[in-house]
Amino acid sequence: MNMSEFSSLVKISSHTLRYYEKIGLLKNVQRNSSRHREYSNKDLNWISFVKRLKDTGMPLSEIKSYADLRELGPSTLQQRQELLELHQRQLEAHIKLQQLYLLQLETKINLYKQGKVS
C-alpha cells in the first residue's frame, strides 16, 4: 500500500512516518518503480506495535532501542524481553497512580453531589 493508504490505516501522519524512517525506527520500506514507498503487512504489524508502545508511554528513544535490538536478531531476545518487562513495571505503577487519582476525584465529586463542599 502507498503512504497515503498506510498513513490513513495506522492513523499516523506521513510526516511522522518519514521521521520514523529517518531515525531508523521504520527500516527497509520497499519502493516501487516510481520510487514511491510501498508498505507491507510486516510494516503494518511493526508500526501497530510501535503505536501501542507509544500509547502506553514508552519514550521514542526506548522504542528505538528496542527496534535496534530487534534488527540484530534472535541473539537479543533476552534484552528485548527485559526492556519490555521494565516498561511493563513502569506502566503498572503509572496505572496504579492513575487509579488512586481517579478514586480521589470520585470522592471529591461525591462530596459535591452530597452538598458537603462549598
UniProtKB/TrEMBL annotation:
PROSITE patterns: HTH_MERR_2. Gene3D superfamilies: 1.10.1660.10. Residues 1-69 form the HTH merR-type domain. Pfam families: MerR_1. It comes from the Bacteria. The keyword Chaperone does not apply. The keyword DNA repair does not apply. Keywords: DNA-binding. GO terms for molecular function: DNA binding; DNA-binding transcription factor activity. This is MerR family transcriptional regulator.
